[in-house]
Amino acid sequence: MGITLIKISAVYFAVGVVLGYYMSVVHDYALTPVHAHINLLGWTSLTLAGILYHLFPVLAQSLTGKIHFWLHNIGLPIMMIGLFFVILFKNEALLPLVATGATVTSLGIFSFVFNVLKNLKAS
Length: 123
Prior knowledge:
By secondary structure, this protein is an all-alpha fold. The chain has five helices and no strands. The chain is globular.
């Protein structure tokens, strides 16, 4: 699971860079919140989680590790796509999509934190 998370995070990194590059070319930074969340929750957080899961297999093998993996990887795209369209089309009707994705992602992150606190032990 660790290597898979690192590979997924690399995709988020590329998406974040492309979005940042686009904003700088057109001199429109309205999508900065999407760019920042993709880089922080997609690239950075998933890379670090992947490294921990790889270094400490007990974390990856736990139920809470699997819950984190799926909730983070389902919730984050929902949140980012929703936020992208809210900003792009100035359509607040899509805010429930952002909130749903944020809730699912947060539950995944809380699962990760619980997993680390419960299962990571000095050898």
